[in-house]
Design goal:
Layout lengths: L1 E4 L2 H7 L11 H12 L3 E13 L2 E10 L2 E4 L3 E3 L8 H14 L4 H15 L11 H10 L7
Helix pairs in contact: 3-4, 4-5
């Protein structure tokens, strides 16, 4: 059982999968095509980022697990302090969710929240604890929690 962090661009340019021409969710197509070529991959995950400006982005996490597609809520990041390490924080959050046996929707929510929080600090290390990420998710934003 293998896990793969890959999205549309990886499917197109690294794996040579033909471009999706349909109207439904294109990531489902790419995830299914990757699994056809690599049946040992049981889980695929990635992020979708909408770049509004250099310091303002929207981030959504995606997960393909047990032939089901999951998406996190949208995280609007403005201002971004530092993008470096955001992908590592996402993958770390994903692996944490797998290790503690969270449900798939919880896994992708946690991973994406960990990445969004990482964007708020300088440096390439996610310095937020599990409880801080969970509190951020529970509040639904970066509101102060008392």
């Amino acid at each position: 059982m293998d896990y793969c962090s890959a999205g549309k661009m990886d499917a197109l340019y690294s794996l040579g999968i033909p471009e999706y021409m349909g109207v439904d969710n294109e990531l489902i197509y790419y995830y299914q095509e990757i699994q056809k070529r690599f049946p040992n991959i049981s889980i695929l995950y990635s992020t979708k980022r909408e770049v509004i400006s250099a310091s303002s982005n929207q981030l959504v996490g995606t997960l393909w697990m047990d032939q089901t597609y999951y998406e996190s809520q949208v995280h609007f990041m403005d201002p971004i302090m530092d993008r470096v390490g955001g992908g590592d924080a996402f993958s770390g959050g994903f692996l944490h969710g797998i290790l503690v046996q969270k449900a798939p929707q919880e896994i992708i929510n946690f991973a994406t929240a960990a990445s969004a929080l990482k964007h708020t600090v300088h440096g390439d290390c996610n310095q937020f604890s599990e409880s801080e990420v969970e509190s951020f998710l529970a509040a639904g934003s970066g509101k102060i929690i008392r």
